[in-house]
Amino acid sequence: MSDDDRSATWFLAQLKPNSHKIANRNLIRQGFETFLPLQEDTRRVRGKFVTQLRPLFPGYIFVGLDRLRGGWRAVNSTYGITRLVTLGAEPTPVPPDLVSALMLRCDDEGKLLPPEQFEPGDAVLLTRGPFANFAATVERIAPESRVYVLMELMGAKTRVVVSPDDLRPA
Fold first, then answer.
1. pLDDT tens digits, one per residue of 12-52
2. CA 12, CA 86: separation in Å to the nearest integer?
3. Which sequence spans correspond to the domains of the chain?
4. Do the beta carbons of residue 12 and residue 85 sit within 8 Å?
5. How far is Cα 168 from Cα 95, in angstroms, rounded to an integer?
């Protein structure tokens, strides 16, 4: 993302179900700037754990528009988009600090980066592996980039060692 992207006026568009890729592609094709923050999500599919990138805000995409140029009505007729979120007759801009802060926490493809560092006592969720979506508490952080977390399994506290990339704040 360039500096121009970060200075755009951002609006929120509601997506049709399961059409974030189609809508993003069609908006870009029309010349609109888009921002679709993604996060890794692990789910059990047919007995196997599958990790996929899914939207951080399911059902919504940020669209950068030039208010002076207009053309926001074209977003509403884009394949994959339901409508721009409005309060009244005009689309309502998203606070620019919110989008800027989200962009800083994402890589160039929009994937949410893991937090810089966890502290002992932090509540976390595991994002990958057999314990995906389990809640845990950070016990300690080892120098070799391992995080020891405590999780409750079958009524007892159990220590599990994970990579910091496999955690997100709860």
1. 999 999 999 999 999 999 999 999 999 887 778 888 888 88
2. 9
3. 3-104, 123-169
4. yes
5. 24
Burial 108-123 (b: 16+ CB within 10 A, else e): eebebebeeebeeebe
Q: Which helix H or strand E contains 15, and what residues bound it?
A: strand 9-15
**Sheet with 123-126: strands ordered across:** 156-162, 146-153, 135-142, 123-126, 167-169
Task: Give CA torsion, residues 21, 27, 32, 36, to 10 deg.
Answer: -20
Report the largest interatomic distance among the alpha carbons of the chain, rounded to a whole angstrom.
61
Q: What is the pLDDT of residues 57-108, one digit of tens each?
A: 999 999 998 866 767 888 989 999 999 998 888 888 999 889 988 998 888 8
Q: Which CATH number fits domain 3-104: 3.30.1300.10, 3.20.20.70, 3.90.550.10, 3.30.70.940?
A: 3.30.70.940
Place of tokens 């080892």: 142
- Given the candidates 3.40.50.1970, 3.30.870.10, 3.40.47.40, 2.30.30.30, the CATH classification of the domain at 123-169 is 2.30.30.30
